[in-house]
Amino acid sequence: xxxxxxxxxxxxxxxxxxxxxxxxxxxxxxxxxxxxxxxxxxxxxxxxxxxxxxxxxxxxxxxxxxxxxxxxxxxxxxxxxxxxxxxxxxxxxxxxxxxxxxxxxxxxxxxxxxxxxxxxxxxxxxxxxxxxxxxxxxxxxxxxxxxxxxxxxxxxxxxxxxxxxxxxxxxxxxxxxxxxxxxxxxxxxxxxxxxxxxxxxxxxxxxxxxxxxxxxxxxxxxxxxxxxxxxxxxxxxxxxxxxxxxxxxxxxxxxxxxxxxxxxxxxxxxxxxxxxxxxxxxxxxxxxxxxxxxxxxxxxxxxxxxxxxxxxxxxxxxxxxxxxxxxxxxxxxxxxxxxxxxxxxxx
Length: 347
What we know:
The chain is an alpha/beta fold.
C-alpha cells in the first residue's frame, strides 16, 4: 500500500478523484461532513447521490472526522463548494503540519473577500504552510474521469517540486497531468469559465445555434483573459487546459451542471427553480456576482458577466440580455489581441 491521501469533499469530482487515486493503490480518506453519507458510502460502496454506478474501491475509507481524514495524509485535496472552503480549512488547520501538500480542486471565487480558493486557504493557514498550497484545474468532468475516458488537467504551484509530486501521484493511462507555475491563472480559468457556461446554456435554452455558442465562448475567453491578466495571471495560461480547455468542456457537455442550469434559465425557469432541480452546487451563480465586483474594482470590461448578472439577480429577460450584447458599441478584434500581446511582451 502506498501513501495516504485525503480528499475533502464527497461530491462528484471528489469521488472521481478518490477512485482514481485508490485504483493507483493509494489509501484514500474520503471526507464528508454528513454521517449519513458516510454510512451510505460504506454500505453501498457507491456514491449514489453524486456519482452513481461507480464502484468505490476498498482503498477508499469514507469518514466525517477531519482529523482522521488529514492527519496522516501526504496530500490533501480540497474538493468542496467554494463558499464552504474557508470554514472547512479553518477546522482542518489543527491537524496539519509543514509536510502536508494542499491542493485546491474547488472552482470558484469567494463572495465578499473576492479571493480565489488558494488565497482563501492560505489566509487560514500558518505562514509556514503557504507555499504548500496549489490548484488543480482543467477540462475534468467527473463522470468521464470515473469511467476512464482520456482526460488531461493542469496542476499549479509556486513551488515546482510540489507540482511534480502531485503530477506523479495523479498520472495514469487515462488521466494526464501537466504542471503550470501560474497558480492564479489556473484557478481563475477554472472559476470564470462557469460564468460563460451559464451564458452558453441560456442561449441553448433559447434555441439559438452554434454560431451563438462559438461567439460566446470566444468572447468569453477574451473576458476571462482580461480579468485574469488584471489580477496577475499569465495570458498563455488561458490558451491552455485550465483556460480554453475547461471552457470548451464546460460549455459543451451534458455533464456540466453550469451549462444545464443555463439551459433551464433560457427555457424560462426562475433561478430558484433551476437550483432546486439539481443536487449539486452551480458555482457559476456565485462566481458571476464575485467576478462582476472584481471587474468593477479593476476597471475591466466584462459585458457577458454583467448581462448574466442582470439575468440571475435582477430578473432581466434572457433574450433582452442577448440583444443588448449584440447591440453594444462596435469594436476592433485585432486591437484587443494586439493590446494583450503587448502586455505579455512587457511583462
